[in-house]
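Notes, p. 3: input format for complexes.
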Amino acid sequence: MRLILAYSGGLDTSVMVRWLSERGYEVITYTADVGQGEELDQIPQKAKAAGAKEAIVEDLKEEFANDFCLPTLRALALYEGKYPLSASLSRPLIAKRLVHYAKELDAKAVAHGSTGKGNDQVRFELSVWALNPSLEVIAPFREWEFRSREEEVEYAMRFKIPVKATKEKPYSIDKNLWGISIECGPIEDISKEPPEDAFEITKPIEKTPQEPTYIELEFLEGKPIKLNSEALSLSELISRLNSIAGEHGFGRIDIIESRLVGIKSREVYEAPGALVLYEAYRDLLSTVLDRYSFHYLLSHISHEYAKIVYEGLWFSPLREALDAFCNSLAKRVTGKVRLKLQKGSLRVVGRESPYSLYSEELATYSPMDSFDHKDGGAFCRVFGLPMKLLGKTRC
Ligand code: ARG
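Output follows (395 residues plus arginine):
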């Protein structure tokens, strides 16, 4: 039977190619470039050396940025208030492509390299079934006999599957354009600061420049289109922000996260580009939206959206409906935001928009003030009426 395996090129999924072949599957590997920053040229060769019949590699950076990261930004969705959902967003896109190729190549099953105690298995499987409920999904990690990395290496050697000779870091890393997630190893001691070698794209504060860097982001109808006046594709813009903000040590997150399967896990992330965009987008929204729309987004949409994405429900009608809400608000998000990066901090220092609701004439305390202060008295009397009634009956 033919099967499509989501393949990263690492030890686990390489061993899976062989393991699945031994169980009678004809394995075709699928690898997506979602901005993990690795050379994917060697992937087909590696996959075939492990026993794959064919290897598909495609560049999905732009689709990932526009169709997955951007809607999440528009919802200002952060899981548990902190995590911009980088790993959670790539799984539904990869699943969508697995389903596509399963149909095109007449495969009846797909497989992924996620473990049985993480969130990624849920995201893969729910996404696959939402798009094709008849596909079988296989997760070798949940079934196979290997209990350690060493056992996998030994198996790889036995079947001449190429493994990197270099000593791997003790972390489990998932990387894409929207962020890097770092788990395992010394990070599992939640009382200790993560070692510096866990981080890849953010500098430690001691090594960041003294001088600040100012950046200007331009948005058009809710989409970031320019960085410092230069028009860029969204994936290019995110990757530039990753390096500029990472250079200033901005974008590290350390969180005790509530996993779907009930476990609390310590997760460390680097997401400089995503977090710069959240800050800028939020600022522009606060400038162009009336308070009811803005508060509704913050209190009802952001949390819900993050939960849906985190829990693998990307392909759900609720996510699409929430997108419609956010896209409607996004129409007003046109303008520029200036930000200042220095020593691990990020501050918005200026903004402008043709849809700005800010009126200096109304806000000022200078003689230019056009607000009629007498109105304030009437407003307080009417708005304060319930308090007066309560006050009279206070017990
Ligand atoms: N805890 C994060 C999430 O659930 C990151 C998962 C990263 N996956 C990995 N295989 N290391 O989205």
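The CA atoms of residues 109 and 135 lie 5 Å apart.
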